[in-house]
């Protein structure tokens, strides 16, 4: 028994699964998909090797940014039920390992994208990573309930990066797609914030429901959903797409508006299961996948 | 202190994964260079 403490204090190298978890793979799927749609929507012939590299760089950049976010927020994550099992707060990895991994992934993704395509796309990728890490994570998240409104821009860059990597220039359609994801982010996150409110409050994160209360949050969800609806229909209105996208956007957005209105007008009692809020959160993810899928199809067949 | 089997397993996995990723990276950079040369830089 005397040797037990020595064995138990041995520091294991972090498991590869922990490195993967740092990159937030589930969030990354949406980032990669919207980036891929930006690439496809550009309607420019791209060599498969270059196309693969563009998507890979967007994924690695998103993974690097997510890793740096978790490195900086390990103290907050340890306070929230939803995040306390992440590799850093759970003590399965050294902070320095995460920092080196995040910086390495970020720098590598930007350099590889610049080498494979053009430096404008690489610069936008670099700006998106820096925006997520410095503006959202370091500056806004702990200071203002508008954190995810402004920070939402970070997640809106991928279609623009895909487009610019393919074409070498910035056009109106990818900017509309940027606006769409930017305006989608507040209802998406605030739906989540409504049902994990106590978690955020415990960690001292000034999310809107914690600071301004549920009623204001519900009104803001409806407000941003309406703005988002205009951005969702804009590609069809401005004739960037055909009726396939127009019809899909109309139906998908109508459901989003209906779910957001249900959440917006609700006055739940204590210990409410928050089912409409959960439904809106999960539908918002499905919505973005379906809408961007419709856009890609429309641009391919149109 | 002798490293535990789990320590060795993780260290080996990390070495293999790093080697495979580096090989894949070299292959990818090579492929990108070929494509760029074919397209005139």
Keywords:
heterodimer; A: 302 residues; mainly alpha; Tetracycline Repressor, domain 2; 2 domains; flat; B: 41 residues; 0% strand
Task: Kindly summarize this structure in a few lines.
Chain A is mostly helical. Chain A has 15 helices and no strands.
Description of the molecule:
The complex is a heterodimer of chains A (302) and B (41). Residues 1-8 of chain A have low confidence and may be disordered. Chain A folds into 2 domains: 18-168, Tetracycline Repressor, domain 2; 171-302. Chain A is mostly helical. Chain A has helices at 4-8, 16-22, 25-41, 48-72, 74-77, 95-116, 119-140, 147-156, 158-167, 172-195, 197-203, 208-211, 214-237, 243-265, 275-301. Chain A is flat, with a radius of gyration of 20 Å. In chain A, helix 3 (25-41) runs parallel beside helix 15 (275-301), helix 4 (48-72) packs antiparallel against helix 9 (158-167) and helix 9 runs antiparallel to helix 10 (172-195). Chain B is an all-alpha fold and 41 residues long. Chain B has one domain. Chain B has 1 helix and no strands. Chain B has one helix at 5-38. Chain B starts with a helix and ends with a helix. The mean pLDDT of chain B is 88.
Query: What percentage of the residues of chain A does DSSP assign to strands (E)?
Result: under 5%
Q: Which architecture of the largest domain in chain A does the CATH hierarchy give at level 2?
A: Orthogonal Bundle
Largest sheet of chain B: none
Secondary-structure element series of chain A: HHHHHHHHHHHHHHH
What fold name goes in the CATH topology slot of the largest domain in chain A?
A: Tetracycline Repressor, domain 2
Measured between the Cα atoms of the first and last residue of chain A, the distance is: 73 Å
Poorly predicted tracts of residues of chain B:
none
End-to-end separation of chain B in angstroms reads 55 Å
Overall tally of structural domains of chain B: 1
Briefly note the structural class of the backbone of chain A: mainly alpha
């Amino acid at each position: 028994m005397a040797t037990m403490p020595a064995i138990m204090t041995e520091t294991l190298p972090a498991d590869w699964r922990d490195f993967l978890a740092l990159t937030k793979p589930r969030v990354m799927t949406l980032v990669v998909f919207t980036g891929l749609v930006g690439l496809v929507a550009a309607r420019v012939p791209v060599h498969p090797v270059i196309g693969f590299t563009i998507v890979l760089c967007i994924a690695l950049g998103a993974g690097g940014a997510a890793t740096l976010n978790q490195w900086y927020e390990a103290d907050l994550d340890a306070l929230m039920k939803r995040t306390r099992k992440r590799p850093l707060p759970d003590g399965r990895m050294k902070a320095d390992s995460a920092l080196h991994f995040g910086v390495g992934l970020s720098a590598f993704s930007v350099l590889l994208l610049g080498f494979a395509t053009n430096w404008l796309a690489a610069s936008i990728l670099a700006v998106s990573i820096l925006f997520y890490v410095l503006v959202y994570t370091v500056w806004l998240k702990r200071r203002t309930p508008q954190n995810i409104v402004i920070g939402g821009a970070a997640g809106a860059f991928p279609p623009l990066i895909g487009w610019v990597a393919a074409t070498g220039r910035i056009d109106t359609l990818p900017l509309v797609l940027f606006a769409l994801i930017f305006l989608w982010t507040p209802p998406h996150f605030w739906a989540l914030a409504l049902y994990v409110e106590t978690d955020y409050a415990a960690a001292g994160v000034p999310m809107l429901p914690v600071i301004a209360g549920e009623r204001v949050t519900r009104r803001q969800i409806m407000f941003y959903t309406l703005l988002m609806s205009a951005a969702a229909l804009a590609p069809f209105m401005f004739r960037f797409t055909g009726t396939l996208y127009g019809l899909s956007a109309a139906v998908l957005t109508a459901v989003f508006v209906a779910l957001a209105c249900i959440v917006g007008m609700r006055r739940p009692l204590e210990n409410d299961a928050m089912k409409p809020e959960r439904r809106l959160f999960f539908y918002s993810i499905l919505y973005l996948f379906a809408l961007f899928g419709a856009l890609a199809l429309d641009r391919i067949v149109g | 202190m002798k490293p535990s089997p789990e320590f060795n397993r993780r260290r080996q996995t990390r070495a293999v994964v790093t080697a495979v990723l580096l090989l894949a990276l070299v292959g990818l950079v090579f492929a990108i260079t070929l494509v760029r040369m074919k397209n005139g830089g």
